[in-house]
# Entry
Amino acid sequence: MAESMEGLKRTARCAEFTVEDIGKEVVIMGWVQKSRNKGGLIFTDVRDRSGILQVIFEEDICGSEVFEKAATLHNEYCVAVTGNIRSRGKDANTELATGAIEVEATALRILSEAATLPFQIEADTNTREELRLKYRYLDLRRPPLQKNIFLRHKLCIAVRNYMDEQGFLEIETPTFVKSTPEGARDYLVPSRVHQGEFYALPQSPQLLKQLLMCSGFDRYFQLARCYRDEDLRADRQPEFTQIDMELSFADVDDVIAVNEGLIKRIWKEVLGVDIKTPIERMTWQTAIDKYGSDKPDLRFDLPIEDISDVVKDCGFSVFKDTVADGGMVRGIRVPGEGHMPRKKIDALTEVAKYYGGKGLAYLCVGCADDGSHKCSFGKFMTDEELEAIIKAMGAEKGDLLLFAADKFTKVCAVLGNVRLALGKQLDLIDKSAWRFLWITEFPLLEWSEEENRFMAMHHPFTSPMDEDWQYIDSDPGRVRAKAYDIVLNGTELGGGSVRIHRADVQEKMFEVLGFTPERAYEQFGFLLDAFKYGVPPHAGLAYGLDRVAMWMAGAESIRDVMAFPKIKDASDLMMGAPSFVDEQQLKDLAIKIDTETIEAK
Ligand code: ASP
# Structure
């Protein structure tokens, strides 16, 4: 039977008591972590968000009525205990923060009982994630998740304080907006008042924050909810939070300066870690060429080298023909790994194939029994040709060389991922490192084979680099953008750009992207109109807050730093969302469900 807490006031949280409190009468409230009856003594661990404190019920002290009630306690009962803090003396538990003390109980109220639990509330669990998400409110009682949610709170407060000090205004933008075509698929909300019409949930506050610059707010930020209806890959959620910002009268360096300050501040405040600034910068081209990725993990080296020139006339037709067809041959030197077992090389070849490559060619320098080279393509090459490759790769006896020959994007994807696999396999990654990196000078446009047209690599409002704009007609792929990403340990934490603020440049950009002036106006008219009335040059950036929190918490997944995440098919297992709705609700919206299509699925 549940009792009231009438007349009781909690003294402090369980783990806030110390040896300083010995002798004091206290009231604690929390959940029963576990309770053991040892004859005349009952030991009960009471837990709240601060931690655990041991309570002792001794029949002689608390009386038989309280003792009998204590004997009925089960895990996760919610209780209030009155008693005196005493020392545990030589029985102190060094594993527990409060292990030197305990509460000698004099009274107990059971505030509410708990049914049999679907799983135990423990730090370590091997309960299936689906079950934990169904009972997320219980899962969230577990200490590691409590810790993550605390960390996230601290992070948000640190961001807010810093942004405020830097003169940024926190401004909320609406979640019902107009659907726009660029980027991912929109989540739609049907309108009852305007039947047949829909709002979209924002993929990001991009256009609105630009309008706030037009309005003269100068510096804006927001912890913004964003929604994207994509098939979920690992570490994506249909709704997520961005640390979103925009600055007027700012260029690339201004954005980077503000954000290096932010990174320094939040890492110091949340983790006590000093991040060195300035953070290294690398152009997109260098990153792709050297590491095969626009978010290279620089916690280890193993750069990619181009040997196309060296092999363009060689005897190995795969290399020769690839170069002749406009492709390239690139390789990675793995120092001292020339004796890597064939099985491991095969596993790396599988990685290459997974990323669309045909395979990997290898050369183990001087690793055959007779001191010659072991090489998958050696029989097609002269000694001179092999030596030229070894020299170009800067290799020494005992090194392993791995090569891919393909089109540019494929070679990058293949070797970039083989490099990552090597980093893991050879244990080259310093797990304690915080390796930040700015990637700059992204291409403005990206050719889409699917759509047979150029797409904006960042978004259509991203400014080109002034010196490249001249190529927009003759060689659009060559135009670089004033865009930047912030990368941490090989993952993208955020990105942004300087925006286009000139009407003529924006119009041209829409034209290149294949928008007619009418369509551009229909979609983005409010922005184009606003830009007629004096628009400041502006720039911005957004981080995935969940991802930042995940890294800081050392969590495996962004779900572990979100209170109520969804699973891969975008459903919420606890609420049971999405769900069917009443016939009347649909009628109000003038919506008919196409049951045939649903059933066919
Ligand atoms: N709105 C952009 C995004 O969500 C970020 C930015 O350009 O500020 O990726």
